[in-house]
Amino acid sequence: MIKVRVEFLGGLDVVFSKQRVHDLTIDAEELSMQGLIDYIVQNLITNKNDVDVFLEDDNIRPGIITLINDTDWELEGEMEYEVCDGDVISFTSTLHGG
Known about the structure:
With 98 residues, the protein is an alpha+beta fold. It is 19% helix and 32% strand. The longest helix is centred in the middle third of the chain and has 11 residues, at 33-43. It starts with a strand and ends in a 5-residue tail after the last strand. One of its GO terms (biological process) is cellular response to oxidative stress.
């Protein structure tokens, strides 16, 4: 089991039932960021039409800053990163409209 906190900030919470913080317990021994993203899409996005707000071409949409324990995910290996028990993964939209 892997416990991870996932945060959706900068307005992204609207896609996730208006809940900014999700404390997840995922039944897995190993979990990559790709696996976590798949889990998020399958289990946390209530309206499947909103998947395009979060993903583009099976990757995090440009304009969404992704941090793993407050470190840019690009420095951690992006989709290849192995999620660890206790990690905090934050997704922050920089596109607010107006």
